[in-house]
């Protein structure tokens, strides 16, 4: 089984070298967080993965990460996409390094996979070999641990999670109960890298089977 990748697209980016104190207060920034990097992207889970990678490549923290309701097809404007991410750092150089890492992940490091030719049915089964500060906090695990980040439409996600948990020695560290803001579901599965890979494969296989035989009991 080989599924075709669906790559996300960065729609807009900006760096704020010196953030205004009023905005800083609303974002709960520390006194050392002077600069911001902002981006929108067409796929929220790819954006989350990119943010986590940024925390490993630069001295930044994720200060905002929100998906938009109903997904990119119902965005508020042509540059909104499905997700807004913001990182904060001590200076523009660190933020720019973080933005480079974000672009690298979105441009090909993480992607959804198509379950049909029209690419209207898809899943996300990505293994993070070593988590940064963002996903570690989300999952409640130490930094540097492996995660399987698995997402699919509601029924597929629920069934696929069960299959993944039974197929490998992983812990359901975070459950995204459907429907999420973008009407998907899934979770973060923690374990060794090999266990996470096995879990992601089992999730992918289970979701693929539903796509091919949706009404089988």
TrEMBL record:
GO CC list: bacterial microcompartment
InterPro entries per UniProt: BMC_CP, BMC_dom, CcmK-like_sf, EutL, EutL_PduB
GO molecular function, one term: structural molecule activity
Record flagged with keyword Transport: no
Localization annotation: Bacterial microcompartment
Lineage: Bacteria, Bacillati, Bacillota, Bacilli, Bacillales
Top-rank lineage group of the source organism: Bacteria
PROSITE patterns for the chain: BMC_CP (PS51931)
Domain BMC circularly permuted residue range list: 1-111, 113-214
Pfam name, any one: BMC
Name under which the protein is recorded: Microcompartment protein EutL
């Amino acid at each position: 089984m080989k599924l075709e990748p669906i790559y996300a697209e960065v729609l807009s980016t900006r760096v704020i070298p010196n953030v205004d104190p009023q905005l800083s207060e609303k974002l709960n920034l520390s006194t050392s967080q002077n600069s911001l990097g902002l981006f929108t992207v067409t796929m929220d889970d790819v954006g989350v993965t990119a943010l986590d990678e940024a925390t490993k490549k630069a001295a930044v923290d994720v200060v905002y990460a929100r998906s938009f309701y109903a997904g990119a097809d119902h965005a508020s404007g042509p540059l909104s996409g499905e997700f807004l991410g913001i990182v904060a750092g001590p200076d523009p150089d660190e933020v720019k390094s973080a933005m480079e890492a974000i672009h690298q992940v979105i441009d090909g490091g993480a992607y959804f996979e198509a379950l049909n030719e029209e690419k209207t049915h898809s899943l996300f089964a990505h293994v993070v070999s070593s988590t940064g500060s963002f996903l570690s906090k989300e999952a409640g695990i130490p930094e540097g641990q492996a995660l399987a980040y698995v997402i699919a439409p509601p029924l597929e996600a629920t069934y696929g999670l069960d299959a993944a948990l039974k197929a490998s020695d992983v812990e359901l560290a975070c459950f995204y109960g459907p429907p999420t803001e973008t009407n998907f579901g899934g979770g973060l599965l923690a374990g060794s890298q090999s266990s996470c890979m096995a879990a992601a494969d089992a999730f992918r296989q289970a979701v693929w089977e539903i796509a091919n035989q949706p009404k089988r009991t």
